[in-house]
Amino acid sequence: MAEIAISPILQVVFDRLASPVLGKLRELCNLKHNLEKLQQSLPIIQAILEDAEERQVTDKAVKAWLLKLKDVAYDSDDLLDELAAEITLCESHCSTGSQVRSLLLPFEPSRRLFRIASDLEKMLKVLDKKISEGLHFNLKEKACNMQSESAAKNRDTGSFIIKSEVYGRGKDKEKILELLSPSFHGKIIGDVTIIPIVGIGGIGKTTLAQLVYNDDKLIGSFDLKLWVYVSDDFNVKRIIKAIVESATRKRCKFSEMDILQSELQDSLCGKRFLLILDDVWIEDPCEWEKLGNLLRGGLGGSKVIVTTRSNKVASMVGTISPYYLTGLPEDACWALFKDRALPLGDNEKYPKLVSIGKQILKKCGGVPLALTTLGSLMRLKREEKDWLDVQKNELCYMDECQSQILPALRLSYSHLPAYLKRCFAYCSLFPKNYEFQKEKLIHLWMAEGFILAQEGDRQLEDIGNYYFDELLWRSFFQEVKVGKHGNRKVYKMHDLIHDLAHYVGGNEFVKLEKVHGVKLARARHASIIHNHRPSIIPQALLNAKRLRTLLLMSPAVFSGELSFLPTNFKYLRALNLSGYGIKKLHESICELMCLRYLDVSNTSVQMLPETICDLCNLQTVDLSGCSHLHKLPSRMEMLINLRHLFLVGCEALTCMPAGIGKLIHLQTLPIFIVGKGIGESITELRSVNLRGELNIKCLENVGGPAEAKTANLKEKTYIQVLRLFWEDNDGGMKIQSARPTHSSGMNTGRNFQSSGLWHGNHGGDAQSIDVEEILKCLEPHPNLGKLFIRGYPGVKFPQWVLPNLTVVVLINCKRCENLPTLGHLPYLKLLYLQGMDNVECISREFYSIGTQRPFPALKELTLRKFPKLKEWSKGDGREAFPCLEKLIVSKCPELSTSPLFPSLQHLELHDCHPSIITSMENLSLLSVLVVENIPGLTVLSGKLLENNTFLASLKISSCGSLCCLPSELEKLTALKSLTICSCQELSALPEGLHNLKSLESLEINECRNIISLSDASVGGLSSLKIFSIENCTNLTSLSAGLLNLITLEQLTIVDCPNLASLPNEWRNLSVLRSLSILCCPKLDSLPDGLQYVTTLQTLEIRSCHGLKDLPEWVDKLSSLRSLAISDCKNLTSLPDGLQHLSKLQHLSIQGCPNLESWCKQEKGRKVRRSVSHVPHLYIGSPEFQK
């Protein structure tokens, strides 16, 4: 049963009724009496709503009233939205000098405005009536949370536990015990360490605390062990009494705080104690300190474990980082579920129920409470149908879930303020395991009016950010790190939390995952999850005329427009069409006057209809990834409430609509293209206070320094990422001739100040100086975190004060002769420099004169395409690059020296002078080394290898003159990966290769002088897992030592035309899983010893023209899952044993014409029929298969 939160929507309605514009309509539209009456009712109704929202759980009449009140409030809000939109249209079309305008209103009202006002007058009367009805329920102000009290009473916990009934918490217990050990010290308050355990309801926090409390390892570690159940009633007196009673095992009769404090001090004084405070909810630091300060009286080494659902509580009480408790591992989930559902060996009697049960587990998300509840539910059910019903149904629809699982989770929900309850329920529209972005969800909340404006100038986005963080802190959301380096954050909900959202959302929030059987009559917000074709969107949904949200969450591949008209949903606030294969939007979208959020990202939309500019309420338009979009509507300036315009990935967009600067509320504009027409210049950025990322393209169109300065970038406090692009900067660069200005140019005699960002040389012609002045005037705010400049045609860089930079990227600044000064930047972590054609020396200025430790935080540095660079200054002996971990130097053919890098761990040298390797010989901490395309390199520096004993990965590629590898290679005992590619003169691997006992991957590619591999060098690689030898055209045999590689999992042999046979003894390859043999035309058979590799799962043979048949023993490869044979023209038959490969999932035999002929014969047809059980079976050409 959904719980109705009405307070926020009523607040929005009342706020709108009090707006100044509506005040001017009072007399004209007969609204005065209704407005005054409602404003009198506001304080009364707001005071009793909290009690009503709590009583609805047990009082059906109150719930029915709230439901009707909510409907009327929604309808009133819809009309107010319509009215506000119509007023805006009237203002835009008003005629100056109008008599009505001059007398009563600042605009000429339309007939439609009077109609809406009339409807609003009637609706306000209904609203007032519904409010009055609520006064008869004897509701009270600020009622206590009876539901929470009742739940807390039923939940009371103690320290007792039956250890044999707990599964999968052994590792968690050991980690907590480590934190309790005397050797662990952390930050402490007084003599007490406080350890928070955080997790969602039902995850097992209390159980873990009980396991730890009763563990034998704690015997003798503490003088006292105390257990107190706290709950949401954080009564300090009650908690002190409970601690005293737990310590003395006697009833405490005192009630005065002073006496209780003395009793507590006496109980703890001189004793080392372990205190469990179970289920803590308090978020008030002052209240916590009243108790926390009293816990300092014990001996050093005393510990307190606090279990809580809230990160905020953990942050407030903890003296060490919280321990986050996650779901049980899969095996423990099954053990716990089986113990309840299939006891006494029933799992062996009912094997079909076992497979269904393992699917049911997925609903539980590793939560022990859910596993125990569902396991107990299935205990007496032995019919397959009953189990399938549970597997198919959502937990929130099951009675057992509603009575046992959801109440534990609903406690967290009941503690939310009303404005967060709606925000949380809204998330039920997402599919399970859906990863959502923080900003997108906040923009959706804004569109729905869920975010309540506050006094002052605080932006709605900032308030929404607070809302989101509150839900995150309270464990309703989980953070997920994605991206190559895990540096991007998305969020998701635990499956059971999602069930809770679905439960509390009720029929107001509808998630359509199937077409039929969904109640849509009361739906205000809907999402379509299933991959529906547009034509089968339910008619019932099209009839939901009051729908506010429509999220099409599953991509649909089709061409053209939507199958429904936007006019189906007149009151829509949010429309998501992301990934929905449309090419255009219907012009009737202008009818959606309430629309605030429109997402058409990742579609094939080429342009938007001009009518979209009539949607004056639009706040967010997302066009990200619309790669075909070439134009924006010309009247975009009419979208006066637009706050976010997402354009990332709109590569075909070549210009901006005129007047974008009139959108004074705009915060997100990731791309701005400078044009030459009126309203297209960079001055349009002057009045918009942008946030986040800004890419300014076509800067060659800037008229001059004065125009650039007008963009006012230096005042844009919230821009974190700035990218500046000039076009046509490839050799014959067209430098836009700037309009004449009164600027006198750069003061080239000015001395460098350490607070500036950079400066360069002082040369250059008048044309370049003008461009340099333009860049100078584009100086961003000092808060900027990341700066990218591409195609800058000036000779030198300006002085900018950007102390907070973490990333600097400069690409194709081809006329620059010196690098900017960057060494003084305290937070710079990544520096990428490319295409500096005229830089010949990295001078002392790069390091920043006067800085003792240049580049103090730099972690990664890349120099690429510096064709004239010859010298790299060492910075006058200063300790430069103290933290540099990764260095890439590429296409710097003249550079022969480099400074010292004391912390370097990752080094890549591509297309460089061979002498630069010698300059790196003193490095000693390398873990990754890549040497590629170094002309003239005959021998790799042995000293470099000898000094870097921690080297884990070594790649040597395209060094055509390299004739041998140094003997020092064998000393790299930590090496795990060795790759040698395109070294044509290399004829052998070093004999000491067998000493590389840690080597796990060995790849040899295009080393055409290698004839054979030494048995001694390869056979001793005792940790090798992956071995690949490719394009070694003169290789005639593989080392017999290869067959001693007992850890080998993957073997690949490609394009070795002279390899006629493989070693025969394969018994020792006991973990080999993958074998690929490609383009070895002389190979005529597989070695018989291969039949003993029963772990082999994948076998691929291609272009081995000498192969005539597969051996009969192939059926002994019992683990084989995939067999692929192609372009083996002389293969004439298949063995009968294929039918015995029971695990085979994929069998593909292509490009074998003799085999196709054989398959037409009786025996061939029989073999084909015998492998028909293979799910993915492809034998012969498509025509042959038919």
Automatic annotation (TrEMBL):
This is NB-ARC domain-containing protein. Residues 682-836, 1088-1152 form the R13L1/DRL21-like LRR repeat region domain. Residues 429-501 form the Disease resistance protein winged helix domain. One of its GO terms (molecular function) is ATP binding. The lineage of its organism: Eukaryota, Viridiplantae, Streptophyta, Embryophyta, Tracheophyta. SMART domains: LRR_CC. It comes from Manihot esculenta (Cassava). It comes from the Eukaryota. GO terms for biological process: defense response; response to other organism. InterPro entries: Apaf_helical, Leu-rich_rpt_Cys-con_subtyp, LRR_dom_sf, LRR_R13L1-DRL21, NB-ARC, P-loop_NTPase, RX-like_CC, Rx_N.
